């Protein structure tokens, strides 16, 4: 689940700093990770959705960013305060903040795959 795409700005390695799960529109799990480049310190998000449809699983991964430093710090603080980071039912502010960022950040990369169930 840890995204390992290289930094789109400098091709450096991205480290997963924090992550949370939130609820996808279909009710499926969606993992959001906050990543930071070890060389240029820019921040990125990765989003991973495992959507269970009637006859197949639609796996979607998207890499987004970069984030403004302040947005990243705010999100990191909220993620660290989340009582249940990997519960999709948690409704602390981190999940809404992540949702808002995902809706406005540029998408760098998108992969999707359908698997039969
Ligand atoms: Zn970088
Ligand atoms: Zn939470």
Structure, described:
By secondary structure, the protein is an alpha+beta fold. It has one domain (14-116). The protein has two helices and five strands, in the order E-E-E-E-H-H-E. The protein has helices at 69-81, 93-104, and strands spanning 14-23, 29-37, 43-52, 56-67, 107-116. A five-stranded antiparallel sheet has the order 1-2-3-4-5, with helices on one face. It is globular. 29% of the residues are buried. The model has no long low-confidence stretch (mean pLDDT 89). One zinc ion is lined by residues 20, 82, 84, 90, 92, 94-95.
List the ions, cofactors and other small molecules found in this model.
zinc ion
Strand portion, in percent? 35-45%
Helix tally?
2
Rg on CA atoms, Å: 14 Å
Ends distance:
20 Å
Q: Give the proportion of residues in helices.
A: 10-25%
Listing every helix as H and every strand as E from the N terminus to the C terminus, the arrangement reads EEEEHHE
Number of strands: 5
**Protein structure class:** alpha+beta
General form: globular
How would you write the strand order of the largest sheet? 1-2-3-4-5
* Stretches with pLDDT under 50, minimum 5 residues: none
For the biggest sheet, the summary is: 5 strands, antiparallel
Average pLDDT, to the nearest integer? Answer: 89
Number of domains: 1
Question: What descriptive keywords fit this protein?
Answer:
117 residues, alpha+beta, 2 helices, globular, binds zinc ion
Walk me through the topology.
Elements: E1 14-23, E2 29-37, E3 43-52, E4 56-67, H1 69-81, H2 93-104, E5 107-116
Antiparallel strand pairs: 1-2, 2-3, 3-4, 4-5
The structure holds zinc ion (2 copies).
One zinc ion (ZN) binds at residues 7, 9-10, 12, 37, 39-40, 42.
